[in-house]
Amino acid sequence: MMKKSTKFSPEVRERAVRMVFESRGDHGSQWAAIESIAPKIGCSAQTLCNWVRQYERNTGQRDGTTTAEADRIKQLERENRELKKANEILRLASAFFAQAELDRRFKS
Length: 108
Description:
The chain is mainly alpha-helical and about 110 residues long.
């Protein structure tokens, strides 16, 4: 059975996280607040918990990689892959032309 994937807008995510922080005092724990709010948003408690944890990382309340850092890492990894491909193409082209130069010298 395939998992249903629902994409939530950034505004919905922000509102849900804000609701968790605002209702913390009404519940015994943060997890209780998350379990209370998640059904109202239409997501699982674990999904909302992930959003809260990422918000805490982004605001410096929790150690870990921020969203901006993760995006930058992805960009650098993509750039690194492209550069490796370009280097491989240049290496092969260099070998090809070196061999062609050798063949030309032997034919002369």
